[in-house]
Design a protein that fits this description.
The protein has 216 residues and is α/β, with parallel strands linked by helices. The chain has seven helices and eight strands; from the N terminus they run E-E-E-H-E-H-E-H-E-H-E-H-E-H-H. The protein has one domain: Alpha-Beta Barrel (TIM Barrel), CATH 3.20.20. It has an eight-stranded parallel β-sheet with strand order 1-2-3-4-5-6-7-8. Helix 1 packs parallel to helix 2. 39% of the residues are buried. The model has no long low-confidence stretch (mean pLDDT 95). The chain binds zinc ion. Keywords: Hydrolase.
Length: 216
């Protein structure tokens, strides 16, 4: 069984969304996401938008991102907000979700939702925040992607996965060297649902939130 990995920095699994750096050659990639990460935002970030818009037209571009907010590493808030809004708009217009990077900036995400009438589906990736913060987001088009934190007993991620509506979750390896199978296995134990069921759930979740469908 091929298990879908929604966010990875490795090219080894083909049934996965590879996090593409904007200047990486795309030829050998099956699915990818690409965006302007807050860590890499420069004052002239707008200059990279045409490249991003061109990549978004590629049918293999499954999501915009990582994009988001980071209060530890990243430029001034207003630069982050502008760059995020532009990328969210691109995701919305393309009909694909946005993969979110969020560090100590939960309020900035809430502010974005409150100010925008129409938003793309936003996937909080590497989710490991307190469940009550996740609950606040359920009123918005938000999904959650769970990774290595599921393997730590008593993690926030494990606590939220138990409560998270089944139509809102995904799984990922991110930059870890874990296999996607081991993440699904951990989720299967936490949720007491067979891996095969989780696999079908994730595929149907994806195909509900995105115009660009995935097939096993
Ligand atoms: Zn990542």
């Amino acid at each position: 069984m091929n298990l879908f990995d929604i966010h990875t920095h490795s090219t080894s699994n083909k049934f996965a969304i590879f996090n593409l750096e904007i200047d990486f050659p795309v030829e050998s990639i099956s699915y990818f996401s690409t965006g302007l990460h807050p860590w890499n935002l420069e004052v002239n970030w707008q200059e990279h938008l045409p490249k991003l818009q061109a990549l978004a037209k590629d049918e293999r571009c499954m999501a915009i991102g990582e994009a988001g907010f980071d209060r530890i590493w990243g430029p001034d808030n207003y630069v982050q907000k502008e760059a995020f809004s532009a990328q969210a708009k691109l995701a919305l217009e393309t009909g694909i979700p946005l993969i979110l990077h969020l560090v100590k900036a939960h309020d900035m995400l809430l502010e974005y939702f409150k100010n925008e009438e129409k938003t793309p589906t936003i996937i909080c990736h590497g989710f490991n925040l307190k469940p009550h913060l996740a609950e606040q987001l359920l009123q918005f088009p938000v999904c959650f992607s769970f990774g290595k934190a599921l393997k730590q007993e008593g993690s926030n991620a494990a606590a939220w996965l138990k409560k998270c509506p089944a139509d809102r979750y995904f799984f990922e390896t991110d930059d870890s060297d874990l296999s996607i199978d081991s993440i699904f296995n951990a989720a299967s134990v936490i949720l007491d649902r067979p891996v095969e069921e989780l696999s079908n759930q994730v595929i149907s979740n994806w195909n509900r939130i995105s115009k660009r469908k995935i097939y096993e």
